[in-house]
Design brief:
By secondary structure, the protein is mainly α. The chain has one domain. The protein contains 4 helices and 2 strands. The longest helix has 27 residues. The mean pLDDT is 84.
Length: 89
C-alpha cells in the first residue's frame, strides 16, 4: 500500500515538472528558465497549492551539477526564494 502511494506521488511530481517546464516555455521560450522554481514560488496561487501538496522541486528537471533535483517543503521554498531575492539586491 505504501509503495502504491509513493508511485502516485512520483507520478504527480513528474506531472508538476512537466507543467512547470511548459509554463516556462510558454512565457520565456525556455524549457526551464534558470531560477524558474523561485519565480513560481513568488507567484504563488496554484503553484503554492501544488507545492504544499507535493513538495517543491529544486534544481530543475535535470538539475545543475552543484545541486541536482530534489524536493523540499513549500515553507523551505519560500525561504529560499526570499534568500535568492536578498542575494540579488
Amino acid at each position: 500500500m505504501e509503495e502504491a502511494a509513493e508511485d502516485g506521488l512520483s507520478r504527480m511530481r513528474r506531472q508538476l515538472l512537466d507543467v512547470m517546464s511548459g509554463w516556462s516555455e510558454d512565457h520565456y521560450a525556455a524549457g526551464w528558465l534558470i531560477g524558474l522554481e523561485w519565480r513560481l514560488v513568488r507567484e504563488g496561487g496554484v503553484w503554492e497549492l501544488l507545492g504544499r501538496h507535493l513538495g517543491w522541486p529544486v534544481g530543475g528537471p535535470d538539475g545543475p551539477a552543484h545541486e541536482g533535483k530534489h524536493w523540499i517543503t513549500w515553507e523551505e521554498a519560500v525561504a529560499r526564494a526570499a534568500e535568492s531575492d536578498r542575494s540579488r539586491a
